[in-house]
Design a protein that fits this description.
- The complex is a heterodimer of chains A (about 260) and B (about 300).
- Chain A has about 260 residues and is α/β, with parallel strands linked by helices.
- Chain A has helices spanning about 10-15, 30-40, 70-75, 85-90, 135-140, 170-175, 215-220, 240-250; strands spanning about 25-30, 50, 55, 80, 100, 105, 110-115, 115, 125, 145, 185-190, 190-195, 200-205, 225-230.
- Chain A has a ten-stranded mixed β-sheet, with helices on both faces. A two-stranded antiparallel ribbon of chain A has the order 6-7.
- Chain B is of the alpha/beta class and about 300 residues long.
- In chain B, the strands form three sheets. In chain B, strands 1, 2, 3, 6, 10, 11, 12, 13 and 14 form a nine-stranded mixed β-sheet that branches. Chain B has a three-stranded antiparallel β-sheet with strand order 7-9-8.
- Chain B is globular, with a radius of gyration of 20 Å.
- In chain B, about 50% of the residues are buried.
- Classes of the chains: A alpha/beta (about 260), B alpha/beta (about 300).
- At the A-B interface, helix 3, helix 4, strand 9 and helix 5 of A face helix 4, helix 5, helix 6, helix 7 and helix 9 of B.
């Protein structure tokens, strides 16, 4: 059997998809999270209910939706509602299990920055797209996941701008803020998987096959703790790769990375 | 009373320099035709509000018609950066005001309901609240946790594209309905552009689908294909290739300028734009039908 070759993006998407449970109601973000949820639905989670911030509930896209407002999301969906309804009745009211997000920076306590790089909001060195739905998803979904390549600049000790809350300065502070959701429960990178410890600090809990804890530490902007029971993630399968490459992203729009 | 007029006349009459303009549509039904007509009529100092500025505002900012943008996600959906708006902000050439999607939509909901503001629950992420003085926190008068409030947004003019409307402005739309209704009720003036103008009896055959009533509409314009490269559910597809191409076109000011010269200033109207787009491209955006099951309203 020849060894499978895959990109970093494919490795992350496949591992992230495995975190979703069958029957989860998931608020799907743009880009790689979109592929992730669509992959999960076509593998182990056929009853995944995909909600898009454009107002679509129970989408069953026949093709890869490039944007989260693609017409393929609507045809055959369970319901389509206004944006005000999706954010109030569904998200704020507590009807969403999982939020799947991206972001330029994520810090030690799982806080996300999708707004600016640099410290001066009024004169941004690099202007990012901004919150979109992320601020409320991070606060109100029961479980949040994030996926991003493992690079030091993406994992600073503290984000330049807190677009969306993880555990703030620690689990106690999030609890005190009274946010309904459980916060950031896992971060998938191209090296491994990080989960919050009892204080909410992201800790390395798993490595992808062939990766090392040293690599993870070198590419993290704070002294990364490594869990005593460090796992190795299951190898990528041919079936998962095939669905991604042939059905979901045949043009390689999101999969080329790495 | 018929409000049916050409798009050119509607823009001329209802969009003025300095206006706050809300061109509605979350990815779907984005009124590109009206945006381009605003550029041809050379409006200036506009405040462009949209949850997602999308390519329509990237093009309008590139053309120099905007003083400020109000947004909640400034990206090219599914592609990446919205290069023109982003670089204008980074270079300090464009004012901006920013919310989360929920904040932005709540502003419209307040405006549409005739309220001064509306509350939302806290999110724990307070940096935007510090950066934007319009986002405030007030005590819950009933003794719960403090809530976040945002002020009503009442645009001077909203432009809303729909699949079909009658000449009075009663409009049916379906698919992603985003913030169309809220924008129409919030705005002081409303221009409806429609793929088709239908008889009032067609509207009356399915009243639940009328999201925008004549009551709030000032002008109705028949503009088929008004949304390209966005789409109209059931009429034509989103031109995803163009969204990807725009990422290249918008890499330089020069290439955007020449695109605008060719596709906005170089054509008279949307019909000419679609003609120029060519048969092959129009063919690729065609879609097969998928009809809903009819429902029975009953004879009473």
């Amino acid at each position: 059997m020849t060894e499978l070759t895959y990109s970093s993006a494919e490795l992350m998407i496949i591992n992230a998809a495995r975190l979703l449970r069958d029957g989860d109601v998931v608020f799907v973000g743009v880009g790689q999270p979109n592929l992730t949820c669509n992959l999960a639905k076509r593998t182990h989670a056929p009853n995944l209910v995909m909600i898009y911030e454009a107002g679509v509930i129970g989408a069953e896209p026949a093709r890869l939706p490039l944007s989260i407002g693609d017409p393929t999301l609507v045809s055959g969906a369970l319901s389509v509602v206004s944006m005000y309804d999706i954010f109030s009745l569904y998200l704020q009211r507590g009807n969403v299990d999982v939020g799947f997000m991206g972001g330029a920076q994520i810090d030690k306590f799982g806080n996300i920055n999708a707004t600016i790089i640099g410290s001066d909001y009024a004169h941004p060195k690099t202007r990012l797209p901004g919150s979109g739905g992320s601020q409320e998803i991070a606060a109100w979904a029961n479980r949040c996941y994030l996926m991003t390549p493992h690079q030091k600049r993406r994992f600073p000790e503290k984000v330049d701008f807190m677009t969306s809350a993880g555990f703030l300065n620690g689990r106690k502070q999030r609890k005190a803020a009274g946010l309904r959701g459980g916060g950031m429960v896992g971060v998938v990178t191209d090296i491994g998987f990080m989960e919050p410890d009892e204080n909410g600090e992201l800790t390395l809990t798993a490595l992808h096959p062939g990766k090392t804890a040293e690599q993870a530490k070198e590419n993290t902007g704070w002294p990364l703790k490594v869990a005593a029971s460090l796992r190795t993630t299951e190898p990528v399968t041919e079936k998962e790769l095939k669905i991604l490459q042939e059905e979901l992203d045949p043009k390689g729009i999101y999969l080329r990375g790495g | 009373m018929s409000k049916l007029i050409p798009l050119k006349d509607a823009i001329s009459k209802y969009v003025s320099n300095g206006d706050v303009v809300y061109a509605a549509g979350f990815t779907h039904l984005i009124p590109f035709a009206a945006g381009h007509e605003i550029l041809r009529q050379n409006r200036r100092d506009l405040v462009l509000a949209r949850a997602t500025p999308d390519l329509i505002y990237d093009q309008m900012v590139a053309a120099g018609c905007a003083r400020k943008v109000i947004f909640s996600y400034m990206g090219n959906p599914g592609v990446g950066s919205l290069r023109i708006v982003r670089s204008a902000i980074e270079q300090g050439k464009l004012e901006w005001e920013e919310y989360s999607h929920f904040g932005m939509i709540t502003r419209l909901q307040a405006g549409a309901s005739g309220l001064p503001f509306l509350p939302m629950n806290q999110t724990g992420a307070a940096d935007l609240e510090k950066a934007n003085p319009n986002i405030k926190r007030i005590p819950d008068p009933y003794g719960g946790k403090d809530v976040i409030v945002v002020p009503a947004l009442n645009p001077d003019v909203a432009i809303v594209h729909v699949q079909r409307a009658d000449a009075n402005g009663n409009a049916h739309l379906w698919g992603i309905i985003g913030e169309q209704k809220e924008a129409a009720f919030a705005a002081k003036k409303v221009i409806v552009t429609a793929e088709e103008i239908v008889d009032e009896s067609v509207i009356r055959s399915d009243p639940n689908r009328t999201l925008i009533p004549s009551v709030v509409v000032d002008a109705v314009c028949r503009v088929p294909f008004a949304c390209h490269p966005s789409y109209a559910q059931g009429y034509y597809d989103r031109d995803n290739d163009f969204y990807l191409q725009w990422d290249k076109i918008s890499e330089s000011v020069e290439s955007v300028k020449s695109w605008l010269d060719e596709w906005v200033y170089g054509v008279k109207d949307r019909a000419e734009y679609m003609e120029k787009l060519g048969e092959e491209k129009r063919g690729r955006l065609k879609i097969k039908s998928r009809m809903s099951e009819p429902i029975n309203y009953g004879e009473y």
